[in-house]
């Protein structure tokens, strides 16, 4: 029998019924970078019983200022593998699926064939992000999508809104434009910050066909975005249990 004593403080806060609902849930987190790695860890530590994590990238030195898998000793290693080991070290009873791949028009439909209870989109490249969102919306899956965490410093400005309500976020603007071309104007829950971007921190990217530019980042901002994404998922899963318990 699985030892859940490590979740005693969580159970004290939310009660055994909601904890059980988390244990029965399956959450997909795509992207193990600054936002996604923290989102995945927070979801795991909350007691979600099954997770799938997806990332085809390896650790680079510049990742160390903000990403959980990035250490001086892990350069060149798979982010998905490092995070998989970390999540299982937190909860050895976690039913974990690790996928070493990038989201493409070919891989997204296959990955989303599983009936996840919630999807976390922590992709920071435009085309793969749009691909995942479109595939999830077609399947009517519950999804929360992180917008741009780069070029910003104030975590107290982070908000959770529909994509149609985002503003002062260049990344969200690009997403809105692309989604509108697909007939999607609303119905996507996003985590974003209206804080003005520090434009001087912009740099052009090389060697990545999906990401032509990037803003500078600070250690805590992507983690804060990840925490908010995780909270959206966890609170939704608990709310579903609460609503379900009232049914005859």
Automatic annotation (TrEMBL):
GO BP term, pick one: cyclic threonylcarbamoyladenosine biosynthetic process
One matching Pfam family: ThiF
THIF-type NAD/FAD binding fold domain segment(s): 12-240
GO MF: tRNA threonylcarbamoyladenosine dehydratase; ubiquitin-like modifier activating enzyme activity
Record-given protein name: UBA/THIF-type NAD/FAD binding protein
Protein's organism: Methylotuvimicrobium alcaliphilum (strain DSM 19304 / NCIMB 14124 / VKM B-2133 / 20Z)
């Amino acid at each position: 029998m699985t030892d859940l004593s490590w979740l005693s403080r969580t159970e004290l806060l939310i009660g055994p019924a909601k904890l059980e609902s988390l244990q029965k849930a399956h959450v997909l987190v795509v992207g193990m970078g600054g936002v996604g790695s923290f989102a995945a860890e927070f979801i795991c530590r909350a007691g979600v019983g099954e997770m799938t994590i997806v990332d085809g990238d390896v650790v680079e030195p510049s990742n160390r200022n903000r990403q959980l898998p990035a250490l001086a000793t892990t350069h060149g290693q798979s982010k998905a593998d490092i995070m998989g080991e970390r999540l299982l070290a937190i909860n050895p009873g976690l039913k974990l699926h690790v996928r070493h791949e990038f989201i493409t028009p070919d891989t997204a439909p296959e990955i989303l064939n599983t009936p996840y209870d919630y999807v976390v989109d922590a992709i920071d490249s435009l085309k793969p992000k749009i691909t995942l969102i479109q595939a999830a919306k077609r399947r009517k899956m519950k999804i929360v999508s992180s917008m741009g965490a780069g070029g910003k410093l104030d975590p107290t400005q982070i908000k959770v809104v529909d994509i149609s309500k985002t503003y002062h976020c260049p990344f969200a603007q690009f997403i809105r434009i692309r989604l509108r071309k697909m007939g999607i104007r609303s119905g996507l829950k996003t985590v974003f910050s209206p804080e003005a971007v520090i434009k001087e921190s912009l740099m052009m990217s090389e060697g990545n066909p999906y990401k032509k530019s990037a803003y500078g980042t600070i250690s805590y901002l992507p983690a804060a975005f990840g925490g908010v994404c995780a909270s959206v998922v966890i609170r939704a899963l608990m709310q579903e249990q609460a609503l379900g318990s009232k049914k005859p």
